[in-house]
Amino acid sequence: MDNVQLPWVFAAPSSSSENDEAQRREAETSESTLRDRIRDLNPSAKPEFLSRFSRRDLAAYLAHLESLAVPRGRTAVWRPADGESAISSARVG
């Protein structure tokens, strides 16, 4: 892949149960369904852009978007999944 990453928004709580949910969803949902659900929550995500990512990446991004529906408060914490960086960058050009 060309060092392109999905746009993440650091806002809502995350937990191991969210990661478990993403893994379960990954096994049960087709990539086209994941892309459709992502576009429902993030209409700016173009289908051709999303088609470049694996089902696992799409499921994790969808779980993250769905977590944004949780009300924010003092306990709202974003945690990256195991092995992921909290800060990342993309090299373009």
Keywords:
mainly alpha; globular; 93 residues; 4 helices
The count of β-strands is 0
Instruction: Sketch the topology as an H/E string, one letter per element.
Output: HHHH
N-to-C CA distance: 14 Å
How much β-strand is present in the residues? under 5%
Report on the structure:
44% of the residues lie in helices and 0% in strands. It has 93 residues and is mostly helical. The protein is globular, with a radius of gyration of 13 Å. The relative contact order is 0.26. The model is unreliable at 9-13 (pLDDT under 50).
Record the SSE blueprint:
Elements: H1 16-28, H2 31-41, H3 47-50, H4 55-67
In a few lines, what is going on in this structure?
This protein is an all-alpha fold. The chain is built from four helices and no strands. It is globular and about 35 Å long.
